[in-house]
Design brief:
Blueprint lengths: L43 H6 L5 H21 L8 H26 L14 H8 L7 E3 L5 H7 L3 H8 L33 H17 L10 E6 L6 H12 L4 E7 L2 E2 L2 E2 H4 L8 H5 L3 E5 L3 H16 L5 E6 L17 H8 L3 H11 L5 H24 L42
Parallel strand pairs: 1-2, 2-3, 3-7, 6-7
Antiparallel strand pairs: 4-5
The chain binds thiamine diphosphate and magnesium ion.
Length: about 425
């Protein structure tokens, strides 16, 4: 499988989208039909106004990637998409993401975490499928659903949990909390609470890789940046501006849209003029691909190609991963808006269960080996909680660090003294 900006005006043209025999032109998308797993209907206006919004067309994109994967399988000498080691690595990473966050939910409801906490449950195949193919020097830019991206990138579970507890041992010394994971060491360039804010940061990181290689002559700088964001965010202006710059300058970046069909309580189908986000890639001169984001092996195949393109200096790719979050928008959301049938549809497609099935059916590992992974991860997560719980809170004096360029915080008061040195300065405004 290989992408190019031209051949992906229709992504991976392996399927010419021949309508199924019962698809009459006017009925390409019957009113009862759904957008992939969504139980919401397309609006009739978009249906009649533009037949290219049809579900048949949409499905062709999904099939296209599946076909590419099948084709690859046929040509591979082992007939399998992964080796045993790769399969176990992917499985362990997804189990880590899931177990870690299940524990986050417990800790949040016990009052150990503050503010909002947004879980990634259900979307693990995207983080694992992409990030496990990166090098340490490659960068990842995330959203407020950033714990699992950070774990996949290698940030120790202890540091992520401590950050969530607001403790001094966290990866941001307790100053970021749930939505602002950052690690210089592992090149996690931030979780971003303002949606879309991370996209220009990622574009800048990709620009710096190209600049270092071509202007500063650092020949070995082939670093790639992955920008993760949601379907709702893909309607924001930064996204379009950055697609333009990335394509214009052939930046080594992959834009990974995690289309979980919802932006808080707003259905993607209600909010987006053309719900097929991948199509925006070719519009800017880069490949656009749609992949089943509940299948880590398919995500990985697409990721391999997109990351490879970026690393070879061939430019950016836009990948739309169709996925689903298993919990509410945040842990404070009772999740009453989404249709139970839609939730059940995706729950039955749990990416961890699917990979387990693949591993067992292909005799890549035994049930015992998988159980051992769960045990190892349970211990690791328990250890992370203990570590976070026992860690100290950051000192009060740290509150104003890293906020302003002046390392002493809020700068100099009218009397010439540093404001942060006035013990009364933070009283009543924040308690840490
Ligand atoms: C600039 C900005 N506008 C609005 C919000 C409020 N907000 C928080 S999450 C969210 C929805 C984002 O949905 P999506 O991009 O699909 O990500 P998901 O939560 O589904 O992962 C919005 C509008 C925000 N955080 N930042
Ligand atoms: Mg969303």
């Amino acid at each position: 499988m290989s992408f190019s900006a031209t051949n992906l005006a229709q992504p991976l043209q392996l399927n010419t989208a021949t309508p199924r025999s019962n698809d009459k032109p006017s009925l390409l998308l019957p009113k009862t039909s759904s957008f992939l797993g969504s139980t919401r209907n397309f609006r009739p206006t978009s249906l009649s106004a533009n037949p290219s919004h049809s579900n048949a067309h949409r499905r062709s994109a999904v099939v296209a990637v599946s076909e590419a994967v099948k084709e690859k399988k046929l040509h591979a000498s082992t007939n399998l998409l992964i080796t045993k080691e790769e399969g176990l690595e992917l499985y362990e990473d997804m189990v880590l993401g899931r177990s870690f966050e299940d524990m986050c939910a417990q800790m949040y409801y016990r009052g150990k975490m503050f503010g909002f906490v947004h879980l990634y449950n259900g979307q693990e195949a995207v983080s694992t499928g992409f990030i496990k193919l990166t090098k340490k020097e490659d960068s990842v830019v995330s959203t407020y659903r950033d714990h699992v991206h950070s774990l996949s990138k290698g940030v120790p579970a202890r540091e992520v949990m401590s950050e969530l507890f607001g403790k001094a041992t966290g990866c941001c010394r307790g100053q970021g909390g749930s939505m602002h994971m950052f690690s210089k060491e592992y090149n996690v360039l931030g979780g971003f609470a303002f949606i879309g804010e991370g996209i220009p940061v990622a574009t800048g990181a990709a620009f710096s890789s190209r600049y270092r290689r071509e202007v500063l002559k650092q020949a070995d700088c082939d670093h790639v940046t992955l920008a993760f964001f949601g379907d709702g965010t893909a309607n924001n202006g930064q996204f379009f501006e950055c697609l333009n710059m990335a394509a214009l300058w052939k930046l080594p970046i992959v834009f990974v849209v995690e289309n979980n069909l919802w932006a808080i309580g707003m259905s993607h189908l209600r909010a987006t003029s053309d719900p097929e986000i991948w199509k925006k890639g070719p519009a800017f001169g880069m490949p656009g691909v749609h992949v089943d984001g509940m299948d880590v092996l398919k995500v990985r195949e697409v990721a391999k190609e997109a990351i490879g393109r970026a690393r070879r200096g061939e430019g950016p790719t836009l990948v739309e991963c169709e996925t689903y979050r298993f919990r509410g928008h945040s842990l404070a959301d009772p999740d009453e808006l989404r249709d139970p049938a839609e939730k059940a549809h995706y729950a039955a497609r749990d990416p961890i269960t699917a990979l387990k099935k693949y591993i067992l059916e292909n005799n890549l590992a035994t049930e015992q080996e998988l159980k051992a992974i769960h045990k190892k991860i349970d211990e690791l997560v328990e250890d992370a909680v203990e570590f976070a719980d026992e860690s100290p809170l950051p000192p009060r004096s740290q509150l104003l660090e890293n906020v302003f360029a002046d390392p002493k915080g809020f700068g100099i008061g009218p009397d010439g003294s540093y404001r942060c040195e006035d013990p009364k300065f933070t009283q009543g405004t924040a308690h840490v």
